[in-house]
Amino acid sequence: MVKKISLSKNKRRALIITIIVAVIVIALMITKNAVNKSHASTLKTYRVRKETYENVIEIAGTVSAAKSQKLQSLNDGTVVGVYKKEGDSVKAGDLIVQLDDTEQLYNLANLDYEISVARQNQTAGKIKLMETQRNSLVRKVENRKISATFDGIIADLDVDPGDYLEAKDSIGTLVDTSYLTAEVEVAETDVCKLKMGQKVDFTFPAYDGKVEGYLVSYPAIGEVTSRGATIVKAKVRIDDVPDGVLPNFSFTGKIVITEPETKLVVERYAIGHDRGNAFVEILGRDGRTSKVSVEVQPYGLDYVNVISGLEGGEILKAQSSASKSGRMTVSKKGSKSSKNKNAPNGSNGPNGEMMGPPPPL
After folding, report:
1. What is the per-residue pLDDT for 91?
2. Are 69 and 152 in contact (CB under 8 A)?
3. Per residue in 157-169, pLDDT tens?
4. How confident is residue 179, by pLDDT bands cut at 50, 70 and 90?
5. Tens-place pLDDT, residues 136-162
6. Closest Cα partner for 305 from 294, 292, 291?
7. 0.70 cut: is pTM over it?
8. Both ends of the chain: CA-CA distance in Å?
9. 3-state DSSP of the chain
10. CB of 296 closer than 8 Å to CB of 280
């Protein structure tokens, strides 16, 4: 037999009231969360970004061998000997090509005989004149040779025994590739940042990797290009030449004024001030904010560099608006680096605009 449980009228009323209150509380909580989410979605926020600041001067050009000698004949004549070939290493003074010097050697030997006869006759004035003539004949004999003037490598050589050469005919090139140099244009606004020995980073389309060099020199006078721009032609050099980089290869590069520096950057509208101290409000995933003290310095007009207090990536609640400050906020997408290429002591803003030096704190 089942026993029926019956509630009194007062107990039933209390139960109903309890259920209604519980429903109301749950409804209020749901509404509050929705309002918070809606507020968070419409709240103006800024993200703290890590950016690389590069203070460099961009350059481009082609590299040249340390030394270059055009191999050419000084006189007309027939080639009687070729003693080196393309790609050979040579030392200064090495004979590369010999022209027929039979006539010159005969003239020199004949003169030597005449000088010996003159000495027997003790005609001092005549001997002095003949010795001067002999020096001229010795030079003519030497001019029948094409020799290396420095240690290097024969880059090209196009001649064979029996070929007839005329004076100034070019038959090849000798190069010294122990180091490479290049002449690059530097804008007049960047010349004040140049110092001898500054590091230069090279990038070659024909070589997979970075090549490091340095600034050798730059003149004390500028020149005007055909475009009407005033520039200075600086000389850069590569001592450690990698395999695969040859004279006349093209490159792009950077003269490094200061080493790259990573900065934490955020719009200045995210920074609040309380009794002279800077702070930010970090927005969490739950929509709640936490107040954090920070140290900042100006970075352009619309941005600040965060020195301490943040690590990067935080979402910050706006403390002021661009419209109230008389400027518009620009959201930045894409590039993660800014370059200072023109201002001597300034920097680019995070959106790539050229900025002057930041004002003192």
Report:
1. 95
2. yes
3. 999 999 999 999 9
4. very high
5. 999 999 999 999 999 999 999 999 999
6. 294
7. no
8. 89
9. CCCCCCCCHHHHHHHHHHHHHHHHHHHHHHHHHHHHHHHHHHCCEEECEEEEEEEEEEEEEECEEEEEEEEECCCCEEEEEECCCCCCEECCCCEEEEECCHHHHHHHHHHHHHHHHHHHCCCHHHHHHHHHHHHHHHHHHHCCEEECCCCEEEEEECCCCCCEECCCCEEEEEEEEEEEEEEEEEEHHHHHHCCCCCEEEEECCCCCCEEEEEEEECCCCCEECCCCCEEEEEEEEECCCCCCCCCCCEEEEEEEEEEEEEEEEEEHHHCEEECCEEEEEEECCCCCEEEEECEEEECCCCEEEEEECCCCCCEEECCCCHHHHCCCCCCCCCCCEEEECCCCCCEECCCCCEECCCCCC
10. no
What does pLDDT average to over the chain? 84
Position 334 scores a pLDDT of: 38
Query: Cβ distance 291 to 281 under 8 Å?
Result: yes
CB 51 within 8 A of CB 336: yes
Tokens for 143, please give them: 């001019």
Confirm if 301 and 349 have CB atoms less than 8 A apart.
yes
- Find where tokens 């009231």 sit: 17
